[in-house]
Design a protein that fits this description.
Layout lengths: L2 H5 L3 H24 L6 H24 L1
Helix pairs in contact: 2-3
């Protein structure tokens, strides 16, 4: 997911997407611990996606203040 794509979304959509990604990240961690995860790089990618969303939300919050 690219930052440009995320910037086009509203705050509500970003918050919802962050929740979905956190749930997916939890499931991926469980798969990793049980040895069922094929690609460990998915964990890294989901963490980065969540960080991008949080960064964009913080930028918008600071711009309003």
């Amino acid at each position: 997911m690219k930052a440009a794509e995320l910037r086009e979304k509203s705050d509500a959509e970003l918050v919802e997407l962050e929740g979905q990604l956190r749930d997916e990240l939890f499931r991926l961690r469980m798969k990793h611990f049980t040895g069922q995860l094929q690609s460990v790089s998915e964990l890294k990618q989901r963490r980065k996606d969540v960080a991008r969303i949080k960064t964009i939300l913080a930028e918008r919050a600071n711009a309003e203040a």
